[in-house]
Automatic annotation (TrEMBL):
Pfam families: DUF3100. It comes from Oceanobacillus oncorhynchi. InterPro entries: DUF3100. This is DUF3100 domain-containing protein. The chain crosses the membrane at residues 12-33, 39-61, 73-95, 107-125, 162-184, 190-215, 227-249.
Amino acid sequence: MLKQIPGYLKDWRLHAAALLIVLLAESIGTISFELGAGMILILPMIYAFILGIAMVFTPVIKEKQFKHSEIMTTALIGLLVAKVSLNIGPAISMIVQVGPAILLQEIGNLGTVLLGLPLAILLGVKREAIGMTFSIAREGSLAIISDKFGFNSPETRGVFSIYLFGSIFGAVFFGLMASLLASFTPLNPLALAMASGVGSASMMAASSSSLSAVYPEMAAEIQSLASASMILSVATGFFVSIFIALPLAEKMYHLLTKRKSDKEAEEKREVGS
Protein backbone atom coordinates (compact mmCIF):
# COMPACT_ATOMS: atom_id res chain seq x y z
CA MET A 1 0.00 0.00 0.00
CA LEU A 2 2.76 2.46 0.93
CA LYS A 3 4.57 1.70 -2.34
CA GLN A 4 1.63 3.18 -4.26
CA ILE A 5 2.01 6.57 -2.50
CA PRO A 6 4.11 9.05 -4.53
CA GLY A 7 7.56 9.78 -3.17
CA TYR A 8 6.92 13.46 -2.62
CA LEU A 9 4.05 12.62 -0.25
CA LYS A 10 6.32 10.35 1.79
CA ASP A 11 9.17 12.86 1.97
CA TRP A 12 9.18 13.48 5.73
CA ARG A 13 12.15 15.87 5.48
CA LEU A 14 10.26 18.20 3.17
CA HIS A 15 7.02 18.14 5.16
CA ALA A 16 8.78 18.53 8.50
CA ALA A 17 10.78 21.50 7.21
CA ALA A 18 7.63 23.16 5.80
CA LEU A 19 5.72 22.60 9.04
CA LEU A 20 8.57 24.00 11.14
CA ILE A 21 8.84 27.09 8.93
CA VAL A 22 5.08 27.73 9.13
CA LEU A 23 4.98 27.32 12.92
CA LEU A 24 7.94 29.66 13.42
CA ALA A 25 6.63 32.30 11.01
CA GLU A 26 3.11 32.26 12.45
CA SER A 27 4.41 32.38 16.02
CA ILE A 28 6.24 35.63 15.21
CA GLY A 29 3.13 37.07 13.58
CA THR A 30 2.74 40.40 11.78
CA ILE A 31 4.98 43.22 12.97
CA SER A 32 3.86 46.78 12.20
CA PHE A 33 5.39 50.13 13.00
CA GLU A 34 4.93 53.68 11.78
CA LEU A 35 7.33 55.41 9.41
CA GLY A 36 6.48 59.09 9.22
CA ALA A 37 2.91 59.34 7.96
CA GLY A 38 2.93 55.77 6.67
CA MET A 39 3.07 52.32 8.14
CA ILE A 40 5.38 49.33 7.59
CA LEU A 41 3.96 45.82 7.84
CA ILE A 42 6.29 42.82 8.08
CA LEU A 43 4.23 39.72 7.33
CA PRO A 44 4.89 36.10 8.38
CA MET A 45 5.50 35.23 4.73
CA ILE A 46 8.73 37.26 4.86
CA TYR A 47 10.00 35.19 7.81
CA ALA A 48 8.97 32.01 6.00
CA PHE A 49 10.94 33.07 2.94
CA ILE A 50 14.07 33.79 4.99
CA LEU A 51 13.73 30.55 6.95
CA GLY A 52 13.25 28.61 3.72
CA ILE A 53 16.50 30.00 2.32
CA ALA A 54 18.27 29.14 5.57
CA MET A 55 16.97 25.55 5.37
CA VAL A 56 18.76 25.10 2.05
CA PHE A 57 22.10 25.32 3.86
CA THR A 58 21.21 22.59 6.38
CA PRO A 59 21.51 18.79 5.97
CA VAL A 60 17.70 18.55 6.03
CA ILE A 61 17.15 19.82 2.48
CA LYS A 62 18.86 17.92 -0.33
CA GLU A 63 18.41 17.62 -4.09
CA LYS A 64 15.52 15.18 -3.67
CA GLN A 65 13.63 17.72 -1.56
CA PHE A 66 14.10 20.37 -4.26
CA LYS A 67 12.48 18.09 -6.85
CA HIS A 68 9.64 17.12 -4.53
CA SER A 69 8.98 20.72 -3.50
CA GLU A 70 8.48 21.67 -7.17
CA ILE A 71 5.74 19.03 -7.49
CA MET A 72 4.11 20.11 -4.25
CA THR A 73 4.20 23.79 -5.21
CA THR A 74 2.51 23.07 -8.53
CA ALA A 75 -0.24 21.12 -6.74
CA LEU A 76 -0.73 23.80 -4.11
CA ILE A 77 -1.08 26.48 -6.78
CA GLY A 78 -4.16 24.54 -7.93
CA LEU A 79 -5.62 25.02 -4.45
CA LEU A 80 -4.73 28.70 -4.68
CA VAL A 81 -6.74 29.03 -7.89
CA ALA A 82 -9.69 27.38 -6.14
CA LYS A 83 -9.38 29.82 -3.24
CA VAL A 84 -9.36 32.80 -5.60
CA SER A 85 -12.41 31.39 -7.37
CA LEU A 86 -14.27 31.10 -4.06
CA ASN A 87 -13.57 34.78 -3.40
CA ILE A 88 -14.86 35.75 -6.83
CA GLY A 89 -18.24 34.01 -6.53
CA PRO A 90 -19.69 35.96 -3.59
CA ALA A 91 -18.46 39.25 -5.09
CA ILE A 92 -20.42 38.99 -8.35
CA SER A 93 -23.43 40.93 -7.05
CA MET A 94 -21.14 43.60 -5.59
CA ILE A 95 -19.39 43.99 -8.94
CA VAL A 96 -22.76 44.61 -10.63
CA GLN A 97 -23.71 47.20 -8.00
CA VAL A 98 -20.47 49.15 -8.27
CA GLY A 99 -20.73 49.29 -12.03
CA PRO A 100 -18.00 50.49 -14.43
CA ALA A 101 -15.88 52.22 -11.75
CA ILE A 102 -14.21 49.01 -10.61
CA LEU A 103 -13.60 47.92 -14.21
CA LEU A 104 -11.93 51.23 -14.95
CA GLN A 105 -9.78 50.71 -11.87
CA GLU A 106 -8.59 47.36 -13.22
CA ILE A 107 -7.84 48.83 -16.64
CA GLY A 108 -5.72 51.39 -14.81
CA ASN A 109 -3.64 48.51 -13.47
CA LEU A 110 -2.48 47.87 -17.03
CA GLY A 111 0.03 50.62 -16.36
CA THR A 112 2.30 47.90 -14.98
CA VAL A 113 2.52 46.56 -18.54
CA LEU A 114 2.60 49.84 -20.46
CA LEU A 115 5.22 51.45 -18.21
CA GLY A 116 7.04 48.58 -16.52
CA LEU A 117 7.63 46.26 -19.47
CA PRO A 118 9.52 48.72 -21.71
CA LEU A 119 11.63 49.79 -18.73
CA ALA A 120 12.44 46.18 -17.83
CA ILE A 121 13.52 45.41 -21.40
CA LEU A 122 15.58 48.59 -21.47
CA LEU A 123 17.37 47.37 -18.34
CA GLY A 124 18.18 44.07 -20.05
CA VAL A 125 15.56 41.81 -18.46
CA LYS A 126 14.56 38.86 -20.67
CA ARG A 127 11.30 36.88 -20.56
CA GLU A 128 11.18 37.38 -16.79
CA ALA A 129 9.82 40.84 -17.67
CA ILE A 130 6.48 39.31 -18.73
CA GLY A 131 5.88 37.81 -15.28
CA MET A 132 7.25 40.89 -13.55
CA THR A 133 5.01 43.45 -15.24
CA PHE A 134 1.68 41.92 -16.30
CA SER A 135 0.14 42.57 -12.85
CA ILE A 136 0.99 43.66 -9.31
CA ALA A 137 2.16 40.06 -8.79
CA ARG A 138 0.01 38.76 -5.96
CA GLU A 139 -1.26 35.24 -5.28
CA GLY A 140 -3.55 35.02 -8.31
CA SER A 141 -0.73 36.18 -10.57
CA LEU A 142 1.51 33.37 -9.32
CA ALA A 143 -1.18 30.85 -10.18
CA ILE A 144 -1.78 32.28 -13.66
CA ILE A 145 1.88 32.39 -14.69
CA SER A 146 2.97 29.04 -13.25
CA ASP A 147 -0.05 27.33 -14.80
CA LYS A 148 0.61 28.76 -18.27
CA PHE A 149 4.41 28.73 -18.45
CA GLY A 150 5.42 26.11 -15.87
CA PHE A 151 7.09 26.39 -12.49
CA ASN A 152 10.68 26.55 -13.83
CA SER A 153 9.98 29.14 -16.53
CA PRO A 154 11.61 32.59 -16.62
CA GLU A 155 8.12 34.13 -16.47
CA THR A 156 7.51 32.38 -13.14
CA ARG A 157 10.86 33.57 -11.81
CA GLY A 158 9.83 37.08 -12.77
CA VAL A 159 6.46 37.03 -11.03
CA PHE A 160 7.96 35.42 -7.91
CA SER A 161 10.63 38.11 -7.68
CA ILE A 162 8.05 40.92 -7.80
CA TYR A 163 5.78 39.00 -5.42
CA LEU A 164 8.54 38.95 -2.82
CA PHE A 165 9.60 42.53 -3.52
CA GLY A 166 6.00 43.72 -3.21
CA SER A 167 5.53 41.80 0.02
CA ILE A 168 8.52 43.57 1.55
CA PHE A 169 8.19 47.09 0.12
CA GLY A 170 4.65 47.27 -1.28
CA ALA A 171 2.92 48.04 2.00
CA VAL A 172 5.53 50.71 2.81
CA PHE A 173 5.05 52.38 -0.58
CA PHE A 174 1.25 52.29 -0.43
CA GLY A 175 1.14 53.58 3.13
CA LEU A 176 3.39 56.54 2.37
CA MET A 177 1.75 57.30 -0.97
CA ALA A 178 -1.77 57.29 0.51
CA SER A 179 -0.83 59.67 3.31
CA LEU A 180 0.95 62.02 0.90
CA LEU A 181 -1.97 62.07 -1.55
CA ALA A 182 -4.44 62.62 1.28
CA SER A 183 -2.38 65.47 2.75
CA PHE A 184 -1.26 67.36 -0.35
CA THR A 185 -3.92 66.77 -3.03
CA PRO A 186 -7.65 67.63 -3.24
CA LEU A 187 -8.59 64.00 -3.99
CA ASN A 188 -11.56 62.66 -2.04
CA PRO A 189 -10.37 60.29 0.73
CA LEU A 190 -13.06 57.77 -0.25
CA ALA A 191 -11.68 57.72 -3.79
CA LEU A 192 -8.23 57.08 -2.35
CA ALA A 193 -9.70 54.32 -0.17
CA MET A 194 -11.15 52.62 -3.24
CA ALA A 195 -7.86 53.02 -5.08
CA SER A 196 -6.00 51.29 -2.24
CA GLY A 197 -7.79 47.99 -2.92
CA VAL A 198 -5.51 46.76 -5.71
CA GLY A 199 -5.78 43.11 -4.68
CA SER A 200 -3.22 42.91 -1.88
CA ALA A 201 -4.38 42.68 1.74
CA SER A 202 -1.13 44.07 3.14
CA MET A 203 -1.02 47.01 0.73
CA MET A 204 -4.69 47.78 1.33
CA ALA A 205 -4.23 47.63 5.11
CA ALA A 206 -1.24 49.98 5.02
CA SER A 207 -2.96 52.44 2.69
CA SER A 208 -6.31 52.50 4.50
CA SER A 209 -4.59 52.83 7.90
CA SER A 210 -2.67 55.88 6.65
CA LEU A 211 -5.86 57.41 5.25
CA SER A 212 -7.70 56.74 8.51
CA ALA A 213 -4.94 58.51 10.42
CA VAL A 214 -5.34 61.60 8.21
CA TYR A 215 -9.18 61.47 8.28
CA PRO A 216 -10.09 59.82 11.62
CA GLU A 217 -13.72 60.97 11.35
CA MET A 218 -14.09 58.88 8.16
CA ALA A 219 -12.09 55.84 9.34
CA ALA A 220 -15.02 53.40 9.24
CA GLU A 221 -16.03 54.40 5.71
CA ILE A 222 -12.44 54.28 4.50
CA GLN A 223 -11.84 50.80 5.92
CA SER A 224 -15.06 49.32 4.57
CA LEU A 225 -14.66 50.81 1.09
CA ALA A 226 -11.01 49.76 0.86
CA SER A 227 -11.90 46.19 1.87
CA ALA A 228 -14.73 46.00 -0.65
CA SER A 229 -12.48 47.41 -3.35
CA MET A 230 -9.84 44.79 -2.62
CA ILE A 231 -12.34 41.94 -2.93
CA LEU A 232 -13.61 43.35 -6.22
CA SER A 233 -10.07 43.82 -7.51
CA VAL A 234 -9.26 40.18 -6.79
CA ALA A 235 -12.43 39.12 -8.60
CA THR A 236 -12.10 41.30 -11.69
CA GLY A 237 -8.31 41.48 -11.71
CA PHE A 238 -8.01 37.72 -12.14
CA PHE A 239 -9.89 37.86 -15.46
CA VAL A 240 -8.28 41.12 -16.60
CA SER A 241 -4.86 39.53 -16.02
CA ILE A 242 -5.73 36.39 -17.99
CA PHE A 243 -7.57 37.91 -20.96
CA ILE A 244 -6.05 41.40 -21.30
CA ALA A 245 -2.87 42.08 -19.31
CA LEU A 246 -0.94 38.86 -19.97
CA PRO A 247 -1.64 38.72 -23.74
CA LEU A 248 -0.75 42.42 -23.94
CA ALA A 249 2.51 41.84 -22.05
CA GLU A 250 3.48 38.95 -24.34
CA LYS A 251 2.67 40.93 -27.49
CA MET A 252 4.58 43.99 -26.29
CA TYR A 253 7.57 41.87 -25.27
CA HIS A 254 7.83 40.27 -28.72
CA LEU A 255 7.46 43.63 -30.49
CA LEU A 256 9.96 45.45 -28.28
CA THR A 257 12.57 42.69 -28.30
CA LYS A 258 12.24 42.30 -32.07
CA ARG A 259 12.85 46.03 -32.56
CA LYS A 260 15.77 45.89 -30.14
CA SER A 261 17.29 42.92 -32.01
CA ASP A 262 16.78 44.63 -35.38
CA LYS A 263 18.42 47.80 -34.06
CA GLU A 264 21.41 45.89 -32.68
CA ALA A 265 21.82 44.00 -35.95
CA GLU A 266 21.70 47.25 -37.91
CA GLU A 267 24.34 48.82 -35.61
CA LYS A 268 26.62 45.80 -36.10
CA ARG A 269 26.28 46.08 -39.89
CA GLU A 270 27.17 49.77 -39.74
CA VAL A 271 30.23 49.05 -37.60
CA GLY A 272 31.32 46.27 -39.95
CA SER A 273 30.97 48.47 -43.01
